[in-house]
Amino acid sequence: MCSAARMTSVNVHMHAEMMFIECQLESKLAAAPVLVPIRTKKRYFIPPAVNVKQKSQSEQETKARAAGVVVRQQYIERAINISCTAGIFDPYVPPEGDARLSTLSKEGLKQRTEQLRQSAASQLAFRKIKDHDPEFSTKEFPALAQQIFIDAHAALTQFNKEKLHSLVTERCYPEMVRGNRYKTLRWRFIESLEPPRVVHARCPDMISKGNLYGQVTLRVHSRQTLAIYDRFGRLMLGDEDEPRDVLEYLVLERHLVNPYGCWRLHGKIVPAWAPPKDPIIKTVMIPGPTLKPEEEFEALHYQVPKPKAVQWYK
What we know:
Layout lengths: L1 H30 L25 H10 L39 H27 L8 H18 L2 H7 L5 H5 L6 E19 L10 E17 L5 E21 L8 E6 L27 H4 L14
Antiparallel strand pairs: 1-2, 2-3, 3-4
Helix pairs in contact: 4-5
């Protein structure tokens, strides 16, 4: 009886241990994630094979869409800038000969009539500008505009982009810096031969009515020096020691409805009767005479021919 009771207690103890182990395994299996491999549809884009007939754009988009690749929509748009205009509205036509033709001649009378027509429209523009800028004055503005012109060109020679952006508009900036990346500019304003004066003004609106922009054309007759060197230090244009008299018609613009707007250089008007520009000086190697083995170059007394001025651009 004792041995039977002892065997029964051992079996009960082993059964209890088995139950405990099963409970532990069930809890671990329930907590662990179960991954079941299932073959699904391929959801990635397979590039086309080599030496296979090319498919059209629509077929490629359909195949990519079926593979789950989202084709981004292409918007045919471009960014615009409303802080300045894209050009010069009704540009000023400089009179030929700087308005020195006699009014008794036919050309002089036609020139005088055009001046009266432009001045009448300019007076209306001055009124609109003064409504938004009470401090604007045709007597004080030329000095301010000339100083903006000098500071802008000084910033250009120093490649000061931040200051140049504050002095010129977004339309004028690429025109001033284009082609000057590897060049050295030497520019200097010497004196003003005549007091600058306002000759033209326009006040157009853009995008919506009331969104006004003021454009004022200034006549500047000054003496300047300009020299442009290439990246190797060779002179391309002008001379630092040779001042020249320059007559320019500058256009300044301001976004009038913007309370934080300011006058900035917008462009330049080149009259049709202006003389052509000087050709760019090209530094080239001039080949010398062909020498025989027994000859020397000094004995020939060879004179290098002077290069002729050639118009390298139109």
